[in-house]
Every structure is written in structure tokens, then in C-alpha cells.
Amino acid sequence: MAQALNCISSMATRHILAEIAAAHGAATGRKVAVNSMGGVDAAKRVESGESVDVVVLAADALAKLARGGFVRAETIVDIARSALAAAVKAGAAKPDLSSDDSAKRALLGARAIAYSTGPSGDHIVALFKRWEIFAAIEARLVKAPPGVPVGKLVADGAAEIGFQQLSELQGLPGIEIVGSLSPSLRAVTNFAAGVAASAADAQAAAGFIAALRAPAARDVYTRHGMEPA
Predict the structure, then answer these.
(1) Same CATH topology for 5-81+191-228 and 82-177?
(2) What is the mean pLDDT of residues 36-58?
(3) Over the stretch 141-165, which tens digit does the pLDDT of each residue have?
(4) Which of 65, 78, 86, 132 has the largest CB neighbor count within 10 A?
């Protein structure tokens, strides 16, 4: 039996990749082991020379790995788009985040605000600085440790409001997704996949990436809160 492919990814796509990997393994006989973690840690492990076949990360992070020679640039393809979302503890009043002004007021009045270590977290911090509220709320910002969902911090009461990609908040127990977000909060992250330079079987790795873009995979992305490429 052929050795399992090793896929490394950020947490945002873990459920999607696990489902598609199971179907791909059943159809082809080539198992895919998906190892998901914080995006920063995933990139570091690829750069460290770990034996990896497929890398799935935010598109800009994957492009950086390609520039460093860790991912084969010619194999990189977009697989999905993920929108930023906000959540509160289940049963709690939902803040009005539908406009920039109402979102600023809600955040200035929040006891604690959680955000992630990935692209969505970078966007949130940059936005708070652009809105000129960062200094006022900095002491109340809670950055989720790598691999810990923001939704867990919200469900546990460590934060009143949490921001992360919808795919990571959707389905978590103890939280509710806030409705419409202001245009500034509606950030979208593009995710891409590529064959790692260390891939032992580049053709098999490319086959799994093709499965990530196959028509049969579209429903998987949608169910997990992403828009397929």
C-alpha cells in the first residue's frame, strides 16, 4: 500500500480537508493525513524541512513559502474564500456591528474582545488602529493561542465578542454568530493549496489538490462556511 500523503494546514480548513481527504482516500486508496494547526506554526513547520506533501494556507502565506522554495509555485491553486465573522456567547445580546460607527461603539463598550492569530486577526488589529480605537481597547483584547478557536474563548466567558473566520466559528457549541457586519469588518481570506517541495510523490499530491477543487467538493466548503474557488 502506498504511503499516506501528509497534508499540513491552518485550522480554518481542518474540517473541510478531513472530509475531502476521507472521500479521496476511499476513492483512490491513497490515504491523506491532515495535520492542522495555527497558520503561523504550519508555515514554520514547512520551513523547518518537515516532510510534507500538500500545504493548505492563506494564499499570501503560501506564496511566501513558494518564494522561499518550500512549495512548488507552479502547483499553487486557490481553493476557497472565507469571510470574517463575529460571535457572542449563546443567549447573550448581540451587538450592533452592522455599520462602522455602531461597531466602534459596541467594541468600545465590550468587556473583552477575542481575535485569532491568523489573517483575520491581523485584519482586526489593523482595523482597530485605523478606527483609532486600538489604544482604548488594547487592554481588553484577547488573542487566542495558536490552535485554540476564538469561539471557545467566547463560550467560556473569556471574551464578550470574538472575531474569526466563519468556518472556524460555525458549529461551535456555546456561541451564536452575530448577523450583518459593517463593510470594514467583512474581510475575506483566500485559501490556496500547493505541492510541497519535499513531496515524495508530487503526482499523488497534485491528485489530492485536484480533489479539493472538484465539483464534488463544493458542497463541503459551503457546509463549513466557505465559498469554493
Answers:
(1) yes
(2) 94
(3) 999 987 789 999 999 999 999 999 9
(4) 86
pTM: 0.88
* Contact yes or no for 208/69 (Cβ under 8 A): no
Residue that has been written with the C-alpha cell 494546514 in this structure:
9
Per-residue model confidence (pLDDT) at position 97: 97
**Domain 82-177 CATH assignment equals 3.40.190.10:** yes
3-state helix, strand, coil in the chain (%, to 5): 40, 25, 35
Rounded distance between C-alpha atoms, residue 7 and residue 155, angstroms: 30
Domain ranges of the chain: 5-81+191-228, 82-177
Closest to 7 (Cα-Cα) out of 159, 19, 74: 19
Query: 179: closest CA among 194, 166, 190?
Result: 166
**Which CATH number applies to 5-81+191-228?**
3.40.190.10
Closest to 114 (Cα-Cα) out of 155, 61, 167: 155
Q: State residue 38's pLDDT score.
A: 84
Tens-place pLDDT, residues 117-133: 878 899 999 999 999 99
